């Protein structure tokens, strides 16, 4: 409001009227912004308040207990140890699979695909992000797990000596690895989009400098593109991680859960916080709901840290360029 | 090391658009050849065809022949990557890799072909290249610092050092001084004088005094009209081009009259 | 195999490294890569047929791997290691893209093929009222009603808040408050959807006591997820409006708020609409928060957002899958097809709007 001063040219009687319009409008805008801060504070506050009575009544250590005996009014004993482990495990599998593929896709779209169809191909990757997670879950449980069965058998036969792939292989395919693979597909477009954006911003001059000294296309990418794009890729991967940590439906529908800490990806077992909440909530009684809110608070905290880290990395890159 | 470039009947197209028409010229080794002409007349475009850098631009293609000594750089089994090792390039805007130190910038290209370069060999190459680019004394104490921290003129000399470290036989310079102040420009011009002992140098410049100062031979490009392709109007000894050119068009341009 | 052409091509071109560097290197003939690809495909499918376990995806993967190995090896012998690496990376990058297309194509194909068997006029126009889970009857009308009502209310809440916040950030925001809002909007985009659901559960527990589920609760939960998306996209669009337009308006003596309403918003309207539709497309498929807030067992048509459970398309899919019978899976696939169709329509409409009505701002 200070950059232009309408009062200088406006007749005095209109001044008050204009001020009112401006003040109301500016304050509405400001109020909306503040409301967002209030909502976010509210999310944290209500989760803390509503989880406190179950946490106070909990007879077990919340952070080290694996089991979940919360649906009672008498001496509930529950903890997030197994859930937190499962959450991190599922997200890690997704990240390990998705990140290299996403970098490849981003490089493909920016540097390898014929220019005329590159935009269309990029759009197709974006379509992956538009598909609702419940549909991914349906596809996973109704189609993919059957297709993966043979692959899992092979994996176990040849790589079974690695504890991760130890048998006996689940006969339903409803395993941690299946959930991780579906999560990987879901976060692929997020990481791809971020990587694609930074790769596009690599100055033409640096690419030409590399080519002019006789670099092949790959050497040009390694010399000029990847170092420049690294923070963006890392930021994108962390955003993808945040999404994978909080994803509910795909895991809830695919994984055959068990509240244990198990490193065996080809067997049923493990569970994530988000899926646990979705599955348990309809049947929660006693301290159940409050305990689930406590679990949600842990998830909120984990994703908050990861996302803030991602934003920090991305923001630092912006200062560079 | 320096090689002769022989261009005959070269046309450059962007898609269907003919950008440069029918250029034939000989660029002598161990000499500086300047390309002058108004903006958009195709001199930079033409320069980029001499090491196939135009292929980076989508839809750009050439028709014609460019011989590097006795080798056709557009021959069927010629790899553009190898061409660019022979014909290096320095750009209008200095473009050291921002994520690399001065040291790493210099050996970036040389490392591509010789991965197992020993530490002392690499040190030697860096010192030689930076001395060659008249930059050694200024940066020898901060080789580990990022190249982006240097001044504009120093960055451009770093880019020249980086290009020469690959040991090309030809060095193409696309308006290397247009973003620099007069003192830095002078430093680069001194360097060009020195470099022509070893290299074939081609420089595109907007600055006619610069062309007169640094070049042995000058080629004048002009547009036949708006929307028409650029052409080579005249090429000859710099002295002659600037004093008594054969073509009226050249004289108009040199004397500041546009016809 | 094409590798047999190696000697000829080496003989004609590769003179080996000499003291004098040559710009010619040995190079694979231009037809080599496609030929290797064709042969790899043949070998892969042939081997799989011989083993009696042909599968298109497996064949594709083996073909790709074979291609990468053969081309890499051929290039390493005929050309040089640098070029071999370049070709290998090229192959890998193409494979990455192909890998990403696999799930997309597979998912869309499966949903269409499985969903089409049950998706008809009947399915879209009846509810599940009075239908037992395993009965060969019932449809998604009540879920569509719920989805429209809940997302509609969520949009009604989110669009004004989101838009005004974006206006604040672009037109007014300076200093710490704007910085804080920008940061926390980013944080908010990262809130897991289930946490948004839990937040409303906790809020409703405080306001109305435990166990209260209705459509409005679902809409509030979706708003928590939708607001940051609206803010982000609107902010981006408003920033694209050239400063000169605002200044031109100020110079005419128009007050700031009218400048925003009459000049800035109309200029950006296409982009704003696109962003809002994409935000809608995103929340319309949200499941987890609705399971917690709007309930997952409603079977009848319910237009009342403030009374009783409300079914929605995503929750319908989820609860049918949980039931697990053959008929339930059929219903789930058909509902998934319906949902995907709606999302794709929103997506396409958004793209069309941004393409057709984008103001010509020049580049």
TrEMBL record, chain A:
InterPro entries: MetI-like, MetI-like_sf, Phosphate_PstC, Phosphate_Transport_Permease. Keywords: Cell membrane, Membrane, Phosphate transport, Transmembrane, Transmembrane helix, Transport. It holds the Pfam family BPD_transp_1. The chain crosses the membrane at residues 23-49, 78-111, 123-146, 158-191, 248-266, 286-310. SUPFAM superfamilies: MetI-like. It is a multi-pass membrane protein. Belongs to the binding-protein-dependent transport system permease family. CysTW subfamily. PANTHER family: PHOSPHATE TRANSPORT SYSTEM PERMEASE PROTEIN PST, PHOSPHATE TRANSPORT SYSTEM PERMEASE PROTEIN PSTC. Part of the binding-protein-dependent transport system for phosphate; probably responsible for the translocation of the substrate across the membrane. This is Phosphate transport system permease protein. It comes from Nocardiopsis suaedae.
From TrEMBL, chain B:
The keyword ATP-binding applies. It comes from the Bacteria. The keyword Translocase applies. Signal peptide: none annotated. Pfam families: ABC_tran. Gene3D superfamilies: P-loop containing nucleotide triphosphate hydrolases. CDD domains: ABC_PstB_phosphate_transporter. Coiled coil: none annotated. Residues 5-248 form the ABC transporter domain. InterPro entries: AAA+_ATPase, ABC_transporter-like_ATP-bd, ABC_transporter-like_CS, P-loop_NTPase, PstB-like. Keywords: ATP-binding, Nucleotide-binding, Translocase, Transport. GO terms for molecular function: ATP binding. This is Phosphate ABC transporter ATP-binding protein PstB. It comes from Nocardiopsis suaedae. The gene is pstB.
From TrEMBL, chain C:
Belongs to the binding-protein-dependent transport system permease family. CysTW subfamily. Part of the binding-protein-dependent transport system for phosphate; probably responsible for the translocation of the substrate across the membrane. This is Phosphate transport system permease protein PstA. Keywords: Cell membrane, Membrane, Phosphate transport, Transmembrane, Transmembrane helix, Transport. The lineage of its organism: Bacteria, Bacillati, Actinomycetota, Actinomycetes, Streptosporangiales. Residues 144-350 form the ABC transmembrane type-1 domain. The chain crosses the membrane at residues 31-51, 57-76, 88-113, 140-169, 181-207, 213-231, 263-284, 332-353. Residues 1-12 have a biased composition (Polar residues). The gene is pstA. It is a multi-pass membrane protein. Its main location: membrane. Signal peptide: none annotated. It is found in: Cell membrane. Residues 1-24 are annotated as: Disordered. SUPFAM superfamilies: MetI-like (SSF161098).
